[in-house]
Amino acid sequence: MKLVVKKCMQGLSLVLVFIPALLAGCGRFRAMFTVMAHAFALLPGLPGDYLRTAYYRLTLDRCSLESRISFGSFFAHPQAVVGEGVYVGPYCILGCCVIGDRTQIASHVQILSGRRQHSRDETGQVGGAEHQAFETVEIGSDCWLGAGAIIMAPVGPKSTIGAGAVVVSPIEADAVAVGNPARVIKKAVSVARS
Hints:
This protein is an alpha/beta fold. The protein has one domain: UDP N-Acetylglucosamine Acyltransferase, domain 1. The protein contains 3 helices and 16 strands. The chain starts with a helix and ends in a 7-residue tail after the last strand.
């Protein structure tokens, strides 16, 4: 019965967000995408979680309805992928990224669109929007990103990023990384199966 109720809520949510997603050009009209993303970020409770996920299902490159995106969290770019069973905690800001299946993201995490999004000209002035260079940051499957982490580089599958860590260079699979800048403090040992 619980599964039936969940599927009904997902279906109803898709119907309710269809017009806002259409107004955003299914993610192609950047300004309207952002307005709607911010509006949906402010919807409280479980209904808000369903509506956010449904909106991103219709506007991101790909987003599983089996994921959960909590209050205050939003995607800054429609060029993102959210895998199956992903949990995004409250107040996260997510850029151009690919989030692998079953990855858990704690509150206040930022996944930036690379390390060098803004350029400076020869006089030191920051370039305008036409000079922005966004990269897609990949987070592997089965990862845990601790509260307040800032992710600017890829994170391998089954890795753990400590709370408040700042990832500025790639983190390999099965690693535990902490600190600013994040450094690997532990690597999982592969178990050979016979």
